Amino acid sequence: MNGESMADIVNSRPAGATSESQIAAFESLIGHALPADYRRFLLEHNGGSPRPDAFTFNLFGRDEEDLVMCFFPLRDLILGEVDVQDLSELRTWPLHCAWNDLQNDLVHLYQKKLEHPLLPIGTDGSGNYFCIVLSGSQAGAVLFHEHELADTCVLASSFDKFTTSLRPRERNDYAEELEWNGE
Hints:
alpha+beta, 26% helix, globular, SMI1/KNR4-like
Protein backbone atom coordinates (compact mmCIF):
# COMPACT_ATOMS: atom_id res chain seq x y z
CA MET A 1 0.00 0.00 0.00
CA ASN A 2 1.23 3.47 -0.69
CA GLY A 3 0.45 4.74 2.80
CA GLU A 4 -1.92 7.39 1.45
CA SER A 5 -5.28 5.65 1.10
CA MET A 6 -7.27 2.99 2.84
CA ALA A 7 -7.21 -0.53 1.47
CA ASP A 8 -10.02 -1.52 -0.88
CA ILE A 9 -12.75 -3.49 0.88
CA VAL A 10 -14.22 -6.60 -0.76
CA ASN A 11 -17.34 -8.32 0.57
CA SER A 12 -18.34 -4.90 1.92
CA ARG A 13 -21.52 -4.78 4.02
CA PRO A 14 -21.71 -8.53 4.67
CA ALA A 15 -24.53 -7.88 7.15
CA GLY A 16 -26.15 -5.02 5.24
CA ALA A 17 -25.79 -1.29 5.80
CA THR A 18 -25.57 0.34 9.20
CA SER A 19 -26.65 3.79 10.35
CA GLU A 20 -25.56 6.55 12.74
CA SER A 21 -28.41 5.58 15.07
CA GLN A 22 -27.32 1.92 15.14
CA ILE A 23 -23.74 2.95 15.87
CA ALA A 24 -24.94 5.31 18.63
CA ALA A 25 -27.00 2.48 20.14
CA PHE A 26 -23.95 0.20 20.04
CA GLU A 27 -21.79 2.88 21.68
CA SER A 28 -24.41 3.22 24.41
CA LEU A 29 -24.44 -0.55 24.88
CA ILE A 30 -20.65 -0.80 25.30
CA GLY A 31 -20.31 2.48 27.23
CA HIS A 32 -17.69 3.97 24.91
CA ALA A 33 -17.64 6.15 21.80
CA LEU A 34 -16.06 4.60 18.72
CA PRO A 35 -13.14 6.43 17.08
CA ALA A 36 -14.29 8.71 14.23
CA ASP A 37 -12.29 6.86 11.56
CA TYR A 38 -13.74 3.49 12.58
CA ARG A 39 -17.29 4.97 12.64
CA ARG A 40 -16.76 6.18 9.05
CA PHE A 41 -15.61 2.68 8.05
CA LEU A 42 -18.74 1.11 9.58
CA LEU A 43 -21.01 3.59 7.81
CA GLU A 44 -19.32 3.08 4.45
CA HIS A 45 -18.48 -0.64 4.54
CA ASN A 46 -19.89 -2.24 7.72
CA GLY A 47 -17.29 -5.00 7.61
CA GLY A 48 -15.55 -6.83 4.81
CA SER A 49 -12.08 -7.90 3.73
CA PRO A 50 -9.28 -5.44 2.90
CA ARG A 51 -7.11 -5.68 -0.21
CA PRO A 52 -4.19 -5.51 0.22
CA ASP A 53 -4.35 -7.43 3.50
CA ALA A 54 -0.82 -8.23 4.76
CA PHE A 55 0.73 -6.65 7.86
CA THR A 56 3.75 -7.15 10.10
CA PHE A 57 3.62 -7.39 13.87
CA ASN A 58 6.26 -7.84 16.55
CA LEU A 59 5.84 -10.21 19.49
CA PHE A 60 8.69 -11.06 21.81
CA GLY A 61 11.18 -9.15 19.64
CA ARG A 62 10.41 -11.09 16.45
CA ASP A 63 8.74 -9.67 13.34
CA GLU A 64 5.94 -11.87 11.99
CA GLU A 65 3.67 -11.47 8.97
CA ASP A 66 -0.04 -12.22 8.94
CA LEU A 67 -3.16 -11.33 6.93
CA VAL A 68 -6.41 -9.58 7.74
CA MET A 69 -9.18 -12.04 6.85
CA CYS A 70 -12.06 -9.70 7.67
CA PHE A 71 -13.34 -6.77 9.65
CA PHE A 72 -16.54 -7.57 11.54
CA PRO A 73 -19.88 -5.94 10.66
CA LEU A 74 -22.05 -4.24 13.25
CA ARG A 75 -24.89 -6.70 13.72
CA ASP A 76 -28.46 -6.36 15.00
CA LEU A 77 -27.78 -8.99 17.62
CA ILE A 78 -24.84 -6.97 18.96
CA LEU A 79 -27.27 -4.07 19.24
CA GLY A 80 -29.40 -6.20 21.54
CA GLU A 81 -32.21 -6.98 19.09
CA VAL A 82 -31.38 -10.71 19.26
CA ASP A 83 -30.25 -12.79 22.24
CA VAL A 84 -26.56 -11.90 22.52
CA GLN A 85 -25.87 -15.27 24.16
CA ASP A 86 -26.68 -17.08 20.89
CA LEU A 87 -23.74 -16.03 18.75
CA SER A 88 -24.16 -19.02 16.43
CA GLU A 89 -26.52 -16.93 14.27
CA LEU A 90 -23.56 -14.77 13.26
CA ARG A 91 -22.11 -17.62 11.22
CA THR A 92 -24.35 -16.62 8.32
CA TRP A 93 -22.15 -14.02 6.67
CA PRO A 94 -19.83 -14.99 3.79
CA LEU A 95 -16.49 -15.19 5.56
CA HIS A 96 -17.69 -17.39 8.44
CA CYS A 97 -15.76 -15.60 11.16
CA ALA A 98 -15.39 -17.68 14.31
CA TRP A 99 -17.84 -15.81 16.52
CA ASN A 100 -18.00 -18.44 19.27
CA ASP A 101 -14.21 -18.27 19.50
CA LEU A 102 -14.51 -14.48 19.65
CA GLN A 103 -16.89 -14.74 22.59
CA ASN A 104 -14.46 -17.05 24.41
CA ASP A 105 -11.49 -14.81 23.64
CA LEU A 106 -13.39 -11.77 24.92
CA VAL A 107 -13.78 -13.53 28.26
CA HIS A 108 -10.03 -14.21 28.35
CA LEU A 109 -9.20 -10.61 27.35
CA TYR A 110 -11.33 -9.23 30.17
CA GLN A 111 -9.94 -11.77 32.66
CA LYS A 112 -6.43 -10.47 31.88
CA LYS A 113 -7.59 -7.15 33.38
CA LEU A 114 -6.19 -5.12 30.52
CA GLU A 115 -5.43 -1.50 31.25
CA HIS A 116 -7.90 -0.24 28.62
CA PRO A 117 -11.09 -1.78 27.23
CA LEU A 118 -10.72 -3.34 23.78
CA LEU A 119 -13.27 -3.87 21.03
CA PRO A 120 -12.53 -6.78 18.66
CA ILE A 121 -13.07 -5.46 15.12
CA GLY A 122 -11.67 -8.23 12.91
CA THR A 123 -9.79 -11.50 12.62
CA ASP A 124 -6.96 -13.12 10.74
CA GLY A 125 -9.05 -16.30 10.50
CA SER A 126 -6.74 -18.25 12.82
CA GLY A 127 -8.27 -17.23 16.14
CA ASN A 128 -6.38 -13.94 16.46
CA TYR A 129 -8.19 -10.60 16.66
CA PHE A 130 -7.70 -6.99 15.69
CA CYS A 131 -8.96 -4.74 18.48
CA ILE A 132 -9.47 -1.01 18.94
CA VAL A 133 -8.55 0.56 22.27
CA LEU A 134 -11.68 2.35 23.49
CA SER A 135 -10.27 4.71 26.15
CA GLY A 136 -7.12 5.96 27.83
CA SER A 137 -3.87 7.24 26.40
CA GLN A 138 -3.98 4.77 23.47
CA ALA A 139 -7.65 5.36 22.56
CA GLY A 140 -8.23 4.60 18.88
CA ALA A 141 -5.10 2.46 18.49
CA VAL A 142 -5.41 -0.88 16.68
CA LEU A 143 -3.91 -3.86 18.51
CA PHE A 144 -3.37 -7.44 17.43
CA HIS A 145 -4.34 -10.09 20.00
CA GLU A 146 -2.44 -13.32 19.36
CA HIS A 147 -4.49 -15.99 21.13
CA GLU A 148 -1.93 -18.81 21.28
CA LEU A 149 0.68 -16.63 22.99
CA ALA A 150 -2.01 -14.66 24.86
CA ASP A 151 -0.31 -11.39 24.01
CA THR A 152 -1.20 -8.15 22.26
CA CYS A 153 0.86 -5.65 20.29
CA VAL A 154 0.10 -2.23 18.84
CA LEU A 155 -0.19 -2.20 15.03
CA ALA A 156 -1.10 1.46 14.50
CA SER A 157 -2.26 4.53 16.40
CA SER A 158 -5.58 4.58 14.49
CA PHE A 159 -7.82 2.48 12.25
CA ASP A 160 -7.03 4.67 9.22
CA LYS A 161 -3.28 4.34 9.81
CA PHE A 162 -3.65 0.57 10.12
CA THR A 163 -5.63 0.18 6.88
CA THR A 164 -3.26 2.44 4.96
CA SER A 165 -0.28 0.41 6.19
CA LEU A 166 -1.59 -2.87 4.73
CA ARG A 167 0.45 -4.21 1.82
CA PRO A 168 0.09 -6.96 -0.79
CA ARG A 169 0.75 -10.55 0.20
CA GLU A 170 4.18 -11.90 -0.64
CA ARG A 171 2.57 -15.04 -2.06
CA ASN A 172 -0.75 -15.12 -3.86
CA ASP A 173 -3.42 -16.91 -1.86
CA TYR A 174 -6.29 -14.96 -3.43
CA ALA A 175 -7.19 -17.68 -5.98
CA GLU A 176 -7.66 -20.29 -3.25
CA GLU A 177 -9.65 -17.84 -1.12
CA LEU A 178 -11.91 -16.83 -4.02
CA GLU A 179 -12.59 -20.50 -4.72
CA TRP A 180 -13.45 -21.03 -1.02
CA ASN A 181 -15.85 -18.06 -1.14
CA GLY A 182 -17.52 -19.48 -4.26
CA GLU A 183 -16.36 -16.66 -6.55
